[in-house]
Amino acid sequence: MKKFIHDFKVIKKWLPGSNHVILHLLCSEPLPPIKAGQFAEILIPDEPEVFLRRPISIHDVDTKNNTISLFVKIVGKGTYKLSELRVDDTLNLLYPLGQGFEFPEHDKILLVGGGCGVAPLLFLAHSLSQHNYHPDILIGSRNADEIHETGEYEKYGNLYLITEDGSLGEKGLVTHHSIFKTDEFKYKIVYACGPEGMLKAVNQKLKGFDTEVFVSLENTMACGIGACLSCVVKTTTGNRCVCTEGPVFNTKELAGW
Amino acid sequence: MKDLSVKLHSLELRNPVMTASGTFGYGWEYEDFVDLSKLGGIVVKATTGSHREGNPYPRMAETPHGMLNAIGLQNKGVDYFIKAIYPAISDFPTNVIVNVSGSTVEEYESVAEKINELEKIPAIELNISCPNVKEGGMAFGTSCASAQAVTRAVRKVYKKTLIVKLSPNVTSIVEIAKGVEDEGADSISLINTLLGMAIDVEKRKPVLSTITGGLSGPAIKPVALRMVWQVSQEVKIPVIGIGGISNASDAISFLLAGASAIQVGTANFIDPSVTMKIVAGIEDYLERHRIDSVKDLVGALDVS
Ligand SMILES: Cc1cc2nc3c(=O)[nH]c(=O)nc-3n(C[C@H](O)[C@H](O)[C@H](O)COP(=O)(O)OP(=O)(O)OC[C@H]3O[C@@H](n4cnc5c(N)ncnc54)[C@H](O)[C@@H]3O)c2cc1C
Ligand SMILES: Cc1cc2nc3c(=O)[nH]c(=O)nc-3n(C[C@H](O)[C@H](O)[C@H](O)COP(=O)(O)O)c2cc1C
Ligand code: FES
User: What CA–CA distance (Å, rounded) separates B129 from B243?
Assistant: First the structure.
């Protein structure tokens, strides 16, 4: 897919809770086709401490209004700077990068998101529903304050929630949710995003089931376009670039999973 | 029209702007952003005698105005290069230069000998300066005797333009530059990355899997510029300046210091189209200063 460098204007900014920011961005050019699971490399403006672009997933796309949204967890200098942007500020994106999710043959699909890893799931749920799939969506988090946009997800599928402190939905870690407990786990395809520990736990949980697990990895990146080989993950066929061959991988291909 | 062309021994470049090995893939990664026919040349990824997996992840750490890398020469080996990659890049409308690496003199020699047979590759760049492999690599570039030994062996089998890429991790870069010139190098490129390190204090662990890695980007530019200046004073063969070049003004400063051409590395990661802006900026500079040929800038630093 052809890649672009475009300037976007911040048209809406929302700070749900203390450590997340959701940005709605208007593209200065017509948006190119974007697939769920793809990401952008973002130039952090006016922050001399940040040298490289920052990879952030496309959270959702609104082709009608020529806008995209980003869902960012504030973890350091670059993401903090993103949370400080104001409406009308400009942001430079190199995108759309990576392969994104493939649409499956089955309609027994479960999307699993943990923490900030939910970012690509909204667009995935949105795209799946546009293609007449009916995914179930499970989101886990530390507490109710970290779960946002539930109404958005509910537009596209059944939403299940779990929090570590039980403040919303069931209580426990994502893999403790009753969805995983049934003797007849019904999903053929699981798409999971989130911290690597959570992804591995989900994958482990589903070993022995007749289920394919796809995960979106967040290796640190420099170029984002397959040139520097910084972002590799060990697979059954050797080191592969997360930025161009991922970020979504079938866990069967990942060595040591 | 200004004359942007330069010559590195018998290699003619339409302009002095090239891309640095390991930062530009095989060129096709940048096809949406760069018109290759507007570049002086591209130096493709390091090629070794056989397949290498490179170092374990993490291989990259951001640093102030730069980055550390420890890729470790990941590539599929020279035979794969000839079979699968060469056909795809041999018709690129620019000079395609192969960066040759190895762990032994014999490995360098055999890779160079094989690349010598490739009609559309007009030059190689001998990488005797990679800090990220256990044996070989930088070890060859940090002693004058071994730098000379590799250059001598490769010179015997390689008939086209031979560029030797120097490591900055040495006490006297001039001595090594003169040493490889004596062994028949046609051109010298410098610098490769500076050995560095980063620590994650929260985890009390090194950021890179290899503990140390190679520093690149604007942070190294003053060091690179100084080395290009010193070397170009002392050798007769053309010098290629590399290190932190991110815009036309950086590129011109290297030309003024004595480089006949330059390579752009890490800056491609921040702006994949940066090389196009650098070419345009050099042309604009010539216009503004009423200089007809970029060759007139080479070594034109006024130190009076
Ligand atoms: C393909 C991809 C998609 C991503 N999508 C999103 C997204 O939609 N929303 C979002 O909030 N984040 C996402 N991330 C993660 C995001 O890129 C990092 O959180 C961000 O780069 C951190 O930048 P910073 O300057 O704020 O942190 P820094 O100041 O650079 O670092 C702060 C701390 O975060 C750690 N850190 C930095 N980068 C990463 C990383 N990639 N993985 C793990 N730890 C890291 C550092 O080790 C350090 O401890 C994605 C990453 C990738 C590779
Ligand atoms: C990710 C990365 C990979 C590199 N790989 C190679 C390589 O394979 N061979 C080589 O000779 N130099 C390699 N280099 C060094 C660059 O070609 C260049 O000499 C160095 O980065 C300094 O230039 P810069 O500051 O413009 O990046 C690499 C640099 C980076 C950042
Ligand atoms: S980030 Fe450069 S190859 Fe993936």
Answer: 13
Residues A211 and A154 grouped into a single domain:
yes
Q: Which residues contact A249 (CB under 8 A, 6 or more apart)?
A: A214, A215, A217, A233, A235, A242
Residues of B in contact with A3 (CB under 8 A): 32-33
> Between A106 and A166, where is the model more confident?
A166
Range of the domain at A34: 4-97
Catalytic residue of the set B6, B130, B251, B274: B130
Q: Which two tokens stand for residue A177?
A: 């949710």
Radius of gyration, CA atoms only, chain A: 18
B71 interface with A at CB cutoff 8 Å: yes
Give just the sign of the alpha carbon dihedral B86, B88, B92, B94: negative
Cα B192 to ligand 2 centroid, rounded to whole Å: 6
Query: B64 vs A231: CB contact, 8 Å cut-off?
Result: no
Q: What are phi and psi of A239, to 5 degrees?
A: -70, 130
CA A22 – CA B235 distance, rounded (Å): 57
Residue A71 inside a domain? The answer is yes
How many domains is chain A built from? Answer: 2
For residues A161 and A143, the answer to whether their CB atoms sit within 8 Å is no
Output A201-204 pairs: Cβ under 8 A, ≥24 positions apart: A201/A173, A201/A174, A201/A175, A202/A112, A202/A174, A202/A175, A203/A251, A203/A257
- pLDDT by residue (tens digit) across B67-93? 999 999 999 999 999 999 999 999 999
Is residue A72 lining ligand 1, measured as CB closer than 6 Å? Answer: yes
Report residue B140's pLDDT band, with 50, 70 and 90 as the boundaries. Answer: confident
* Secondary structure class of A138 (helix, strand, coil): strand
A70 lies in the same domain as A115 = no
- Find the B269 Cα to ligand 3 centroid distance in Å: 9
Domains (range + CATH), chain B: 6-297 (3.20.20.70)
ipTM confidence: 0.95
- Look up the pTM and report it: 0.96
For residue A226, pLDDT over 80 is answered with yes
Domain boundary among A60, A77, A97: A97
Mean of all residue pLDDT scores within chain A: 94
Q: Residue B255 in contact with residue B242, Cβ under 8 Å?
A: no
Q: Would residue B144 show up in a list of annotated catalytic residues for this protein?
A: no
